[in-house]
Amino acid sequence: MKIRQWEDKGLAQFSYAILSECENKIVLVDPSRDPQPYLDYAKENDAMIIGIIETHPHADFVSSHLELHNLTGAAIYTHSLVKPLYPFIAFDEGVDITFGKIRLYSLHTPGHSPDSICIVLEHDGKPNSVFTGDTLFIGDCGRPDLRESAGNLTATRESLAVQMYHSLRTKLATLPDNVIVYPAHGAGTLCGKSLSNATSSTIGQEKETNWSLQSLSEKEFVKQLLADQPFVPAYFPFSVEQNRNGLPSFRESVNSVPRNSAIRNPADISRLDPQTWIIDARDEASYKMGHLPHSINLMEGERFETWLGSMISPGEKFYLAASSSEQLERLIQRAAAIGYESQIREAFLVQYGEETLPELDLESFRKSADNYTVVDVRNEAEVKKNRIFPGSISIPLGELRNRVAEVPTGKPVVVHCAGGYRSAAASSFIHSYLKGRTNVFDLSESIREF
């Protein structure tokens, strides 16, 4: 038997292949949008993919389960409560999948969502590992507030937090201590708040070190779980529904994105709809030296997908701009990881821009910060822990599009985050929104001096 783990670093998401070497058969768990790595793995091992398990309808990424089913004929397994709109086999508690010396069986573990399951793997009749989806992470457990308005089955965060308390204790903590834990996410995901950088663990290790498995009362657990959860990106409910429906072919959908010639002069700009936002993924310095109107400097980085799905609403058309053809292709595929490729109105390179962002006079700001409106776009928990500038306005980047009218225009505006990535996106958006009513400055990496 072999277990292969893949990591999508942009979404801090893990997917898995379980290979029976004696029968050359594979079952996948929570595959990402691009099916090719799983098809390649099957080919490398001269094996057949016979099953795809979805631990729940994911909120932060879209899965290739339906495409893999169409390509290989493999059955899709998920809990009956999901009520998916694709062909599936109900993988409810008491159901198992047996191939070679491997037995997989389902544990219904509501908490992150009402329809969440974990999958226990037995090899040669002994418990070997458990695929915990978004229920148990390394160092944390799944957040319970993503299904209050998403999917066919909704529930309040309080009721799901209570269910999580019991799922962890009655379903997972009772497994043998040596059972290996394989979660669906690692550090950096918004599906939890304090995950470890580790990619696997054991039940025993988690019982010793994971706060969610400690001796807490139900009331204490619920209070701690609900406190300081990260923001919910706009695309999360959209992804839940997409995963319940199933996605079209990854490659065909990516290839259908319109690519157009580079923007090189004012005449090229005239072809663009001035009301459609441009996501400009070039580096911060290039953007500030010259960019297009109505654009957001959302640089290519580890959380590009998350911020794209926060700044652009589900169903909203946008332009995608980059500095090279290679970068553009990467970004189209990353947009597809959250099901946004069909929203790209046009993808192109930027080689000209008549708008600039002014550079902040740091000494002037340091001496008289009161002469500026300071906008802090970090998350609420970060601000609560350390408000860097007294009197600053706190508007997390994930809420900025809905709250930008709160930014006053009586003074120049200085935007900051913790390191420069979020402030680049926020300052460019505020600059585009205010249309010259006041100067907008990005404190960028200089925030570290404060």
From TrEMBL:
<dbReference type="InterPro" id="IPR051682">
    <property type="entry name" value="Mito_Persulfide_Diox"/>
</dbReference>
<keyword id="KW-0479">Metal-binding</keyword>
<dbReference type="GO" id="GO:0006749">
    <property type="term" value="P:glutathione metabolic process"/>
</dbReference>
<dbReference type="Pfam" id="PF00581">
    <property type="entry name" value="Rhodanese"/>
</dbReference>
<dbReference type="InterPro" id="IPR036873">
    <property type="entry name" value="Rhodanese-like_dom_sf"/>
</dbReference>
<dbReference type="GO" id="GO:0016740">
    <property type="term" value="F:transferase activity"/>
</dbReference>
<dbReference type="InterPro" id="IPR001279">
    <property type="entry name" value="Metallo-B-lactamas"/>
</dbReference>
<dbReference type="GO" id="GO:0070813">
    <property type="term" value="P:hydrogen sulfide metabolic process"/>
</dbReference>
<dbReference type="GO" id="GO:0046872">
    <property type="term" value="F:metal ion binding"/>
</dbReference>
<keyword id="KW-0808">Transferase</keyword>
<dbReference type="InterPro" id="IPR036866">
    <property type="entry name" value="RibonucZ/Hydroxyglut_hydro"/>
</dbReference>
<dbReference type="InterPro" id="IPR044528">
    <property type="entry name" value="POD-like_MBL-fold"/>
</dbReference>
<protein>
    <submittedName>
        <fullName>Sulfurtransferase</fullName>
    </submittedName>
</protein>
<dbReference type="GO" id="GO:0050313">
    <property type="term" value="F:sulfur dioxygenase activity"/>
</dbReference>
<feature type="domain" description="Rhodanese">
    <location>
        <begin position="272"/>
        <end position="361"/>
    </location>
</feature>
<dbReference type="InterPro" id="IPR001763">
    <property type="entry name" value="Rhodanese-like_dom"/>
</dbReference>
<dbReference type="Pfam" id="PF00753">
    <property type="entry name" value="Lactamase_B"/>
</dbReference>
<feature type="domain" description="Rhodanese">
    <location>
        <begin position="368"/>
        <end position="450"/>
    </location>
</feature>
